[in-house]
Write a structure and sequence with these properties.
87 residues, alpha+beta, two-stranded antiparallel ribbon, YlxR-like_sf, YlxR
């Protein structure tokens, strides 16, 4: 069980995506196997928005100063577009 840093709900690892720090950037660890500290988030834009608003990403990853979360937003956008195509 993991806890989403956005909504704070607990969920299975398969239902969450892992975020990691790469320097000042935050990226999605799609295989959830990269070494180091990670933060877990549901694959919902609402959870990402909550995590950003609460500044939970930087805290969870123990990052100092401003963070670049552009790659995470891009990944979430691609996932949502793919889901809409399936429906």
């Amino acid at each position: 069980m993991r806890t989403c840093i956005g909504c704070r709900e607990r969920g299975r690892r398969a239902d969450l995506v892992r975020l990691i720090a790469r320097g000042e950037r935050v990226v999605v660890d799609e295989r959830a196997s990269a070494p180091g500290r990670g933060a877990w988030l549901h694959c919902r834009s609402a959870c990402l928005e909550q995590a950003v608003r609460r500044r939970a990403i930087g805290r969870a990853l123990r990052m100092q100063g401003p963070i670049d979360d552009h790659a995470v937003w891009t990944w979430f956008g691609a996932i949502e577009r793919a889901e809409h195509r399936v429906e």
